[in-house]
Prior knowledge:
By secondary structure, the protein is of the alpha/beta class. The chain has helices at residues 34-51, 65-74, 85-93, 108-117, 130-143, 166-176, 199-222, 238-242, 351-355; strands spanning 2-3, 6-7, 29-33, 54-58, 77-82, 98-104, 122-127, 147-152, 181-187, 229-232, 249-250, 280-291, 294-297, 312-313, 320-324, 329-332, 343-347, 360-365, 368-374. The chain folds into 2 domains: 2-32 and 275-374, Lyase, Ornithine Decarboxylase, Chain A, domain 1; 34-257, TIM Barrel.
Amino acid sequence: MVANGRSFQVGFDIPAKIGDRIDDIHTPALLIDLDAFERNVSRMADSAKAMGVRLRAHAKTHKSADIALYQIKHGGACGVCCQKVSEAEALVNAGVKDVLVSNQVTDLKKIERLAQLTTRARTIVCVDDADNVDHLSASAQRFGTVLECLVEIDVGAGRCGVEPGRAAVALAKKIAGAEGLKFSGLQAYQGAAQHIADYGQRKANIAAAVEMVQATVTLLQQQGLQCEIVGGAGTGSYYFEGASGVYNELQCGSYIFMDADYKRVKDKNGEFIHEFENSLFILTSIMSHTKSDKAICDAGLKAQSVDSGLPTVFGNADLTYVKCSDEHGVIADPKGILKINDKLKLVPGHCDPTCNIYDWFVGVRNEKVECLWPITARGLAL
């Protein structure tokens, strides 16, 4: 099989073939429960439609052309977000026609690639630096294209973005006056709020962000500048931004998969987020059980990202993933229920960087492999 310009062999590079049962899948492998995945996609599409806002699904979660195109065709997405020019290129090459690089692109060579991409798809980029405007304009003129720009404002994450208000207006005016560029609105993502477990605190953080965004939109309107896009929001807060009357585009990503960290985030009833299901799993095999109370699996550090905590064992409260090293994961098994070659489904602690480790998603329905989706932009960081 050929994907992403590479040849793969089942059992060497591909963990399964269509029709295999779960027990036949080589591990560790990245599984998608297709029924749960499709329900998640549908629920977010319905929510965005009910709130009267667009959904621009964030592809950094999955980096997969197959999933991006599914979200556009079946999930109500107007397009996708990416974090890297290379991700955008990979998805446009696969047929995505509307992409926002929800990040700054300042390297001159990458700006050239971005401007070139605009000849094949609607391409939008975030800006928070006046000199960057000049470089983007020069490249867009060189290719005879129009590159859309969002002014990114810092609404509390403390990362990228100019200050809301007058600084944002000054930058927007410079974009609007630059040849080859179009001012299309604001990028206002409060990333730091997404995983605040307490509902009230998370709501207060987003309320403060909405206030800053509204004030900036008003100042822009006073200068004759309209925001076609006011974008932001994530899986942990989309209902706040979507109902604000200020945001008109959501940038949620993790909702399709969910992960162990998102399942620690509570809703207004004090329960953990339940409208979206775990659909992404690391399938792992037990390879050693010399200790009566613990088993060793083949999903260690190299099979996942643990920056947001360790994975959880799906579907069995008696088992706990307690620690890992490069190639080994330790499963606490106090009742001694596991056997050599048993397979477990782990819910990764953080889905986005975990997906970036693998070449394939193995789509499973009714305990059988239904599809194999290459992770199109896997490892692309330029």
